[in-house]
Design brief:
257 residues; mainly alpha; 8 helices; elongated; Permease_MalE; membrane; transmembrane helix; transmembrane; Permease MlaE
């Protein structure tokens, strides 16, 4: 009678990783279902949601705005000086908006929220699960999910959208100041140039990409509650980065192919 060989460590790790991705998809479905229920914003749940919305975004808003402005100023100045050196100043606005506003700043905001907020919140949910205060299935208790999981997911998603909007607005203002100074006379032509870049297709792709980043950062790190292995924070970081990269690639394909 033949004996089945024992599974290798790599095979076991692959199975565990696959199960975690399946759990992640289930988690996303559960959170979307909870987010669409009015009961998730009533009673004791609403103060928790409001608390996480505020604590995820506002404490770092001002200094993130300063950092993004400094980073944007460096990139804008490099692009503007290079364009002027080659006599291509008329293309500087499009280059800055397409590179900085459409691509770099949304990704930077998502990574910032992931590293500063969501990895810690995923660890908090893992601790609540170990303490028995958070069931893994909705049927075992809706209220803990509404009090602990949904507010953290909404807070992370809101922070990504807010920081992206603030940094992109600052980048557009800095672009104008670098090109035209404080003169108001170039404002109509500048807004027309930016408006031509943000045609309906680009605007739709930019909005969907930002929402995709927000959903990835708000949900994927929380899947650490299903992961009982060591180094769960590192695994959550890698998983979220992979999803962000996939969303970014889809946005690039939509914009340029």
């Amino acid at each position: 009678m033949s004996v089945m060989p024992a599974p290798t460590p790599s095979w076991t790790a692959s199975v565990q990783g696959w199960r975690l991705w399946v759990a992640l998809l289930r988690l996303m479905g559960r959170l979307l279902a909870l987010a669409l229920q009015p009961a998730s914003y009533r009673g004791a749940a609403w103060p928790r949601v409001a608390q996480h919305l505020v604590t995820a975004a506002l404490p770092a808003l001002w200094w993130y705005a300063v950092l993004s402005a400094l980073f944007g100023q460096v990139v804008i100045r490099i692009v503007v000086v290079t364009a002027q050196g080659y006599g291509l100043t008329q293309y500087a606005v499009e280059a800055v908006v397409r590179v900085l506003v459409l691509e770099l700043l949304p990704l930077a905001a998502a990574l910032f929220v992931l590293l500063r907020v969501m990895l810690a919140r995923g660890a908090e949910l893992r601790r609540l699960r170990r303490e028995g205060r958070l069931p893994l299935e909705l049927r075992d208790g809706l209220e803990p999910w509404r009090l602990h999981v949904l507010p953290r997911a909404l807070g992370g998603a809101f922070a990504v959208v807010l920081l992206t909007m603030v940094s992109c607005i600052l980048a557009c203002v800095l672009t104008y100041l670098n090109l035209y100074g404080f003169s108001p006379w170039a404002w109509p032509s500048y807004t027309r140039a930016v408006g031509q870049i943000f045609n309906p297709a680009v605007t739709l792709i930019f909005s969907l990409k930002t929402l995709g980043f927000a959903l990835a950062v708000g949900v994927v790190p929380l899947a650490a509650m299903f992961d009982g292995r060591s180094h769960s924070d590192v695994r959550a970081l890698v998983r979220t980065a992979a999803v962000l990269l996939a969303v970014e690639l889809l946005g690039l394909v939509g914009n340029y192919y």
